[in-house]
Amino acid sequence: SASGIGRLNCAEDCSTRSGCFGFTWLPGLCRLFSLSAFYNLAWESSAECDVYTLNTTKLNFVACNQSSVMQNGVCERAFDGNKNQDYWGGLSCIHTDNNGQPGWWEAQLAAPAQISHVTIYNRADCCSSRLNKMSLTVDGVECHRVDLTVAFSIATFSCNAFGSKFAMINLQAFSITMFTNQ
């Protein structure tokens, strides 16, 4: 990246560098990127010509919490790697108690990170509409609001936020049963 240059200088810089496919410009910040930036989901600086490519690294969750626990559906199940969507058969989903309040789940990252998207594997054996309305947050700031009329099985939601704590808050008075493949 080049700081302190104008938009035209940024465009010219891209046109003269091998591997540069495009650029983004904010006042005082020029970022050049290669074509691979369109096929991946997280910025990584390359030593060659300050051309950015994208790196897809799974988030490293180190701790978690949730509003309540039902049927042994503890928060760690959300990122244990088990993708079985059958709550009883796979023992892989988290489950909060349906106490008439919106359920929530949150996880702490080992270090602050750019969170470009989150993939959620919804419970498939029943109750999948419970996640039709939810808020995804990073460090307490909403990065995506889900408002669906049809339940999903597996969905990827954009987030585009930087932080160290990710949370999912159900906007309905239902328990949460899901897991993420961050």
Walk me through what this model shows.
There is one protein chain. With 182 residues, the chain is mostly beta strands. It folds into two domains: 2-54, no CATH class; 61-180, Jelly Rolls (Sandwich), CATH 2.60.120.260. Helix content is 7%, strand content 44%. The chain is built from two helices and twelve strands. The protein has helices at 7-15, 87-90; strands at 2-3, 22-26, 29-33, 43-45, 51-54, 61-66, 94-95, 104-122, 133-138, 141-147, 154-170, 177-180. Strands 6, 7, 8, 9, 10, 11 and 12 form a seven-stranded antiparallel β-sheet that branches. Strands 1, 2, 3, 4 and 5 form a five-stranded mixed β-sheet that branches. A hairpin with a 2-residue loop joins strand 2 and strand 3. The model is unreliable at 46-54 (pLDDT under 50). One of its GO terms (molecular function) is metal ion binding. Homotrimer. Belongs to the fucolectin family. Keywords: Calcium, Disulfide bond, Lectin, Metal-binding. InterPro entries: BG_Antigen-Binding_Lectin, FTP1, Galactose-bd-like_sf.
Draw up the topology in text:
Elements: E1 2-3, H1 7-15, E2 22-26, E3 29-33, E4 43-45, E5 51-54, E6 61-66, H2 87-90, E7 94-95, E8 104-122, E9 133-138, E10 141-147, E11 154-170, E12 177-180
